[in-house]
Specification:
Strand order of the largest sheet: 3-2-4-5-1-6-7
Distance between the termini: 33 Å
Radius of gyration: 18 Å
Largest sheet: 7 strands, mixed
Number of helices: 9
CATH topology of the largest domain: Rossmann fold
Structural class: alpha/beta
Number of domains: 2
Strand content: 15-25%
CATH superfamily of the largest domain: P-loop containing nucleotide triphosphate hydrolases
Order of helices and strands: HHHHEHEHHEHEHEEE
CATH architecture of the largest domain: 3-Layer(aba) Sandwich
Helix content: 25-40%
Number of strands: 7
């Protein structure tokens, strides 16, 4: 993880800001974090200390993973960090997005201290508006066991009428992951109602599903909220 300056200097900036503006330190920390692209200081600190090696180690070739969080919780950064970490370990990393432009993805990679050019063919970004299960599978037909692909995001896969139903696409991705040994991670929205719940982290029942989908197709779930993370196997 790389920020505009080291963490200790960011904290110093926040202390000076709190003094100059006569605001509480926690407000100043949040303002500094927002300048670095995070919603709050707790999210910045969580991403900075996240044990990505251990998360990657818990994913098994053939896994189909649902990565869910409310907006602004760092799920895209986590997914990108996972792909970059895999690419740095001699695997290939793929990032498919219907949400961001390539420049926006590169900007987020920069906040992680990643330089795609240094990874060569080990990392690729796909921002095509044709992204669906068939497109992803075609692009990854030469992928190897243990390679990691992120799809951003689940609820957009069937937004075009010519694309198959969501459940058909997710089943196809699951079959491809199982036969190829590729790890596929689908970023997912979480229903707004979660913010009114008492749970500290979303659950699989909180996934926003505008169209029918059997969530048991996923082998693992990873949920984020306010700097906390939980990775579980789907029962």
């Amino acid at each position: 993880m790389r920020f505009s300056v080291p963490i200790f200097r960011l904290k110093r900036q926040a202390k000076l800001l709190a003094r100059d503006k006569k605001i509480p330190l926690h407000e100043a920390l949040d303002q500094v974090a927002q300048q670095e692209g995070f919603r709050s200081w707790s999210l910045l600190a969580a991403v900075a200390s996240r044990p990505m090696d251990s998360i990657l180690a818990e994913l098994t070739p053939g896994d189909l993973v649902l990565l869910g969080a409310r907006p602004g919780q760092g799920k895209t950064l986590l997914a990108l960090e996972l792909v970059i970490k895999a690419a740095g370990k001699g695997r290939r990393g793929f990032f498919f997005t219907l949400e961001y432009t390539e420049d926006e993805v590169l900007s987020r990679l920069a906040s992680l201290g990643a330089e795609p050019k240094s990874l060569g063919n080990s990392f690729s970004i796909d921002t095509s508006d044709k992204i669906c299960a068939d497109h992803v599978i075609e692009r990854m037909k030469a992928a190897s066991r243990g390679d990691v692909a992120v799809i951003d995001y689940l609820q957009l896969l069937d937004q075009k009428r010519q694309n198959p139903e969501l459940i058909v696409q997710v089943q196809a991705l699951k079959d491809f992951a199982r036969t190829s040994g590729v790890i596929i991670v689908l970023i997912s929205q979480i229903d707004r109602s979660f913010e009114h719940e008492k749970d500290r982290l979303p659950q699989i029942s909180d996934v926003r599903l505008p169209n029918p989908l059997d969530l048991s197709l996923f082998t693992k779930t990873c949920f984020l909220h306010e700097g906390e993370l939980r990775l579980d196997a789907v029962a």
